[in-house]
């Protein structure tokens, strides 16, 4: 049986999820809501059988699963309303920007006992699954640490500009939106991390988000995760995570391109999918059904998302 689903937040991420839920036989999007009429109109074109609700609460009333793709600020209130009504939740990250508020959210969601997962998009992908297996089996040798490199010509990127909040310090920025994914991946391989030092750089306008991030994080036994991120200059996007092993290392580029090196040039492990986004979202939605059915799945838990949020906010606050 397809799960009746409501989608709250119909910006670019919400519409992408809607498009792939429509394709998936495990989901039936029945209710949609966004404060922007144009976003609603675009969403209805993707899912003509779904109804635009009069409010977020009305959309949630009609469904069994609530997908929240709204900006971080209202996410907690919507999530708690849904959970109190016994609805399952699929949340975009971050959980929020205030750590104490998110700690309270995670505790209260646990008390309701509803299925909850967070959409770190690599969680169910072949790259994280295969690198995790290689790390556990010893194929990589000793796992020594990780490097994260992210560079953009501009932020937000062209396809993100409709989500204007992404350019502001209060809720946006590449550390929350992109580096968080690679922190989640790194913790899955290396274990819990702590921020040792972090140096963000911000523009003169105090309202705008960071343009650079340099940071060192470490595991409990001192293995480093090094981060270098910047915005500016005529260049293509670069999004790269390298898990470094004593025998072999794995480099994940653009979230899904998995390559291996034994000391020489990195070589891609598998043929690239024809539609990487479709492949990724289908894997996430397949595992979400497992989560909804109480079965073992690879999706990020609320506790994992909270750990990542704490790292991100510590980095943005800076640590000498």
Report on the structure:
With 320 residues, the protein is an alpha/beta fold. The protein has two domains: 3-114, Rossmann fold; 126-271, 2-Layer Sandwich (Dihydrodipicolinate Reductase, domain 2), CATH 3.30.360. Helix content is 36%, strand content 25%. The strands form two sheets. Strands 8-9-10-7-11-12-13-14 form an eight-stranded mixed beta sheet, with helices on one face. It has a six-stranded parallel beta sheet with strand order 3-2-1-4-5-6, sandwiched between helices. β13 and β14 form a beta hairpin. The longest helix has 17 residues, at 174-190. The radius of gyration is 19 Å and the shape is globular. The model has no long low-confidence stretch (mean pLDDT 97).
What key attributes describe this structure?
320 residues; Rossmann fold; Dihydrodipicolinate Reductase, domain 2; 2 domains; eight-stranded mixed beta sheet; six-stranded parallel beta sheet; 9 helices; 36% helix
Brief description of this entry?
This protein is an alpha/beta fold and 320 residues long. It has helices at 12-23, 37-46, 56-61, 75-84, 99-112, 126-137, 174-190, 276-292, 302-317; strands at 3-8, 27-33, 51-52, 65-68, 88-91, 116-118, 143-152, 194-201, 212-218, 224-231, 238-245, 249-253, 257-261, 267-268. The chain has an 8-stranded mixed sheet, covered by helices on one side. The protein has a 6-stranded parallel sheet with strand order 3-2-1-4-5-6, sandwiched between helices.
């Amino acid at each position: 049986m397809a799960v009746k689903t409501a989608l709250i937040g119909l910006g670019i991420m919400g519409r992408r999820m809607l498009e792939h839920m429509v394709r998936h036989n495990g989901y039936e999007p029945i209710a949609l809501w966004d404060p922007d009429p144009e976003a609603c109109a675009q969403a209805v074109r993707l899912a003509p059988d779904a109804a635009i609700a009069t409010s977020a609460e009305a959309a949630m009333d009609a469904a069994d699963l609530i997908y929240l793709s709204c900006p971080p600020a209202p996410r907690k209130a919507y999530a708690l309303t849904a959970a109190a009504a016994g609805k399952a939740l699929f949340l975009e990250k971050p959980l929020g920007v205030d750590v104490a508020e998110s700690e309270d959210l995670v505790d209260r969601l646990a008390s309701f006992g509803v299925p909850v997962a967070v959409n770190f998009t690599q969680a169910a992908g072949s790259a994280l699954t295969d690198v995790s297996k290689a790390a556990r089996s010893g194929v990589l040798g000793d796992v020594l640490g990780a490097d994260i490199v992210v560079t953009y010509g501009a932020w937000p990127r062209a396809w993100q500009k409709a989500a204007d909040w992404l350019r502001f310090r209060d809720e946006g920025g590449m550390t929350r939106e992109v580096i968080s994914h690679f922190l989640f991946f790194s913790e899955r391989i290396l274990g819990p991390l702590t921020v040792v030092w972090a140096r963000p750089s911000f523009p003169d306008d105090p309202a705008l988000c960071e343009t650079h991030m340099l940071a060192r994080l470490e595991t409990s036994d001192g293995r480093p995760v090094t981060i270098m991120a910047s915005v500016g200059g005529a260049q293509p996007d670069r999004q790269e995570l390298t898990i470094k092993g004593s025998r072999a290392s794995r480099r994940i580029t653009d979230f899904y391109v998995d390559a291996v090196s034994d000391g020489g040039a990195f070589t891609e492990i598998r043929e690239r999918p024809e539609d990487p986004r479709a492949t990724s979202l289908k894997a996430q939605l397949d595992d979400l059904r497992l989560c909804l059915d109480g079965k073992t799945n690879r999706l990020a838990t609320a506790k994992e998302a909270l750990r990542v949020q704490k790292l991100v906010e510590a980095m943005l606050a800076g640590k000498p």
